[in-house]
Amino acid sequence: MPGVVRQHRIREQGRAFPHSRYDDPRGGRASALERNVLRYRAIEASLYLFYTAEIREFMLENVFPLVPVVGGAGTWETAAEARQKQLMRALVAAAETAGQISTEEAAAMAPPAPHDPKEGKKLRRAFGHAVANGMFEAAEADELVALLQYRNEVAHHIHLVMADVTRSYWTTNYVAYAAPAYKSEALDRLRVYRGDLWDRFGRISALYRSSFDHLLFEHAERVFEEDLVRLDRRIRAQIKDERKRFEALRPELSLSGTGLVDDLHPRAPWNFRSAGYEAQQTGNLTPQGVEICYRLFDLGKSPLAIAYLMGISLRAAQNRARRWRDAGGPDRARAELKRHSGIGRRVASG
What is the rounded CA–CA span in Å between residue 279 and residue 59? Predict the structure, then answer.
């Protein structure tokens, strides 16, 4: 039951809601779906930290003591790390041959140790011994090492793991350029390795040391796993509801046949007040903008649809809906619309 990742695209045509810091007409208040997704990840993080600590301890307490003092398997490095090391050596050698760097600089730029120091040499040697003796295939060891490294993201960069669940323009832009740190499949994959760790170890030794830490965490683990199942079911239902809501809204976002196009488009610049000459728009509607908004209500558009069409907040659209009803709704006296042929250039009335 993997978690949900929210995708953010790089914007090439500006903000959908230019007068707000949020990429959503509802503002910054989290929806029920967003709250449940964040709760889901918080529980995942707790389980992930415990499971990685348990696996790490097992490798150090049981596998590492079997590593020969002299000879035997070396420190394990993943295929990606080996490739990175190879490329670094080639780049340094090419730069030295071309005379771009000195021999001393080339020596200083030698590839670093093939592992994260936080993982420790003992753990990497334990993995090397495990692969050499058939406890893991090389690809399996690569994956498990990557899963253990992801633990550092969860523990030390939790803000990056949660960052894609946001409405802030600044954060969405950041996530659009830098892929989300959250890995939805990580916990499920870690469960698989944790579940058969003891059976795998039986391939290289019949005796192992067991920790009682899992007994101390047992009750919390059961509650967390039950909550994940419950939240997963709720999140899936809420995603379906969100999709249905948007599909129902989609026809309302069409302006075909309304006449509100070109200079009468809901997002035309003269529909919004500015703080001064060539200043940024404030988001407050001009009389022309108010009339355009009211005519959208005349057409039966909902406040949410108008928020998307005009790039205003849902609250502002709801306030305009009340004023439109107070003015008589579709039976009100319509104001005259001014036509424009260019930026700020009025030519006729309509």
Answer: 63
